[in-house]
Amino acid sequence: MIHIADLLGGSLGARYEIAVHDLRREEDSVVHVVNGHVTQRQVGQGIRDLLGVLNAPEFENGALLNYQAPASSQDRTIRASTQVYFDESDQPVLALCMNVDVTDLIHARDTLSSLAFPDAGGGMRQLVPGGGARDIGAVLDMMIDEAIEATGNPVEAMTKTDKQAVVRMLDLRGAFHVRHAHTHVAKALRISKESVFRYLQQVKGDPPEAL
User: Fold this and answer.
1) What pLDDT sits at residue 110?
2) At residue 125, does pLDDT exceed 70?
3) Which residues of 15-27 are buried (b: 16+ CB within 10 A; e: fewer)?
4) Are 183 and 177 in contact (CB under 8 A)?
């Protein structure tokens, strides 16, 4: 597994941190690190959230993919994936963890978006000929997709705070003036329509810092 970590880290580059964990040693499970500068990982540290990984609804076939991990500083965004290996007694004994610093990619995306859509909302004003529901729905779906992408997380890895941030962004862009917008947003975020209404009330009543 150490050889695999060296191969991945060397091939993918300096933004990819690869850590090998011996899970039989809870307090100092990290036995090998490549590109540890990404999250300041060091040999001799413990695994950060094994129970969180194992209990995540998306944990499947021993792996949890593309979730947000703790960063070395608050202004960095880290995308993580973890593969866990089990012994004959179904006890976790080994983990291979990959952390990717996607901060600059997010900044580049936002910069390109601001150049393409320079108005304050990050989107372009749309005139829908004839007011066709199909065209309006396409514009709404595009706005929802952009708001989800802005969180830096796929829907399956989003927290409640991420989903509130999506609702806030859509509200600022006037998305909820479109009929049935709450239904579209609920389906995209995989939550109930009642949750969308509740989040909308919260983001309208609370400052951004409260989310």
Assistant:
1) 81
2) no
3) bbbbbbbbbeeee
4) no
